[in-house]
Specification:
Elements (H helix, E strand, L loop, with lengths): L2 H21 L7 H20 L5 E2 L2 E2 H23 L2
Antiparallel strand pairs: 1-2
Helix pairs in contact: 1-2, 1-3, 2-3
Length: 86
């Protein structure tokens, strides 16, 4: 993978996580790098659950990435809430 393609991949993943963060009440801790990581994992989760549907950019299927990132943010929020009360 070329450096420019890799940077574009990270930016698209972070943008998908940012959109998912706007959809799900909650915040990804850790700023841009954590958002990019959530976007990458969310893209993998979304593509595994829903397949490759909709447009893709930089090798990331956008709709499954946003949905997968939203699910991941929701799960992180639940884990964070359950550990905060103990």
């Amino acid at each position: 993978m070329e450096l420019v393609a890799f940077i574009l991949f990270i930016l698209v993943a972070a943008a998908c996580a940012g959109i998912a963060e706007a959809l799900v009440p909650g915040q990804v801790p850790g700023g841009f790098l954590m958002s990019a990581l959530v976007g990458i994992i969310g893209a993998w989760v979304g593509a595994s659950l829903f397949g490759h549907m909709g447009p893709d950019l930089a090798g990331i299927p956008l709709l499954p990435a946003i949905i997968g990132s939203a699910l991941l943010i929701f799960g992180l929020k639940l884990i964070r809430r359950s550990t905060a009360h103990t």
